[in-house]
Amino acid sequence: MRGLSGARWLLGAAALLLAGDPFTSSHAHHTLHYFFTGVSEPGQGLPHFTIVGYLDDQQFVRYDSDARRDLPRAPWIRKVEQEDPQYWDWQTQLSRSWELYFRVTLWSRFNHSQGLHVWQWMHGCELDTDGRKGGHSQFGYDGKDFLSLDKETLTWTAADSRAQVTKRRWEADRVWTEGRKNFLEGDCIKWLQKYLDYGKETLLRTEPPVVTVASKASYGGLERLTCQAYGFYPKEIEATWIKDGESLEAETYRGSVSPNSDGTYYTWLSIEINPEERDLYRCHVEHDGLSEALDVAWKAPASVGLLVGCILGAVTVLILLVTGVVFCIRK
């Protein structure tokens, strides 16, 4: 159904925003994003209205039209209650106002056909560790882009002809459009910094990647080298294949940066090579958890015979040690 495709659009867009572009830089940045979803016919596990908030890749708050209250989703966000005991009350009132906006404004001013339809709104801000800031506000309808804000010109970019009417209405309403820009450049950055302070033990930690290189035969006499980096945090990482000091970006196949169950990340990159030149290749990795960049080469695995020999040797030593202890006890 079209509504389900809308839900997939939201999840896909959320994944892209949370993942970012992990291979362009190892430079850390932090994000605060809110994802709003409104459906015309609640059901199939979807409430009529939902808001989910993420700091970096961690969900910290959720509101929906069933519970009708903002609820914490990360332990560290409870620290806000020490500074403002009324925080959850006024956040809940704000969320209820947005629910009313979706019900009254978005649904009533847009002609819909029968069936399930979905509105989505993504907005949030980014802050680099060097002080650079950014922000975006984007609406989607039934799984497709609808309108996105240009903060510099205070205009809305329409994705199709159906969005033109809303575009003109919002551009005429300067209070609405300027309000979105002011939030992205002001309150959003302020709360991002405050939330980061609450969750710094989790969100500002660094864990270095473990990097390994494996080899596998490929087609046409070629060989595929695969570099795996895992167990790292934060998710920003720079990894590339190099040969004689030259980056081989065009020849590299990449996997996405994906989460582990323990909150760290893993990724991989591979390249097809001439086996005779294997020793010239290095997997170059940079990450905030590393004191210096890694250049990892393929290493031949230990032979089975050598491994068996080592095991037998260890067993022999253990038997001799036990025999000696028993002999001493009897003596």
Task: Note down, in words, how this protein is organized.
The chain contains seven helices and 17 strands. It has 331 residues and is α+β, with helices and mostly antiparallel strands. The protein has two domains: 202 residues, Murine Class I Major Histocompatibility Complex, H2-DB, Chain A, domain 1, CATH 3.30.500; 87 residues, Immunoglobulins (Immunoglobulin-like). The chain is 33% helix and 32% strand. The chain is elongated.
Provide a quick synopsis of the model.
It is built from seven helices and 17 strands. It is an alpha+beta fold. It has two domains: 2-203, Murine Class I Major Histocompatibility Complex, H2-DB, Chain A, domain 1 (2-Layer Sandwich); 210-296, Immunoglobulin-like (Sandwich), CATH 2.60.40.
Count of discrete structural domains: 2
What pattern of helices and strands is seen along the backbone? HEEEEHHEEEEHHHEEEEEEEEEH
Helix content: 25-40%
Largest sheet: 8 strands, antiparallel
The CATH topology of the largest domain is given as Murine Class I Major Histocompatibility Complex, H2-DB, Chain A, domain 1
Text of the CATH class of the largest domain: Alpha Beta
Overall pLDDT level: 84
- Approximate shape: elongated
Multimerization state? single chain
Amount of beta strand: 25-35%
Number of strands: 17
Counting helices, strands and paired strands, the structural category is: alpha+beta
Distance between the termini: 84 Å
Kindly provide the radius of gyration, computed on alpha-carbon positions and rounded to a whole number of angstroms: 27 Å
Q: How do the strands of the widest beta sheet line up side by side? A: 4-3-2-1-5-6-7-8
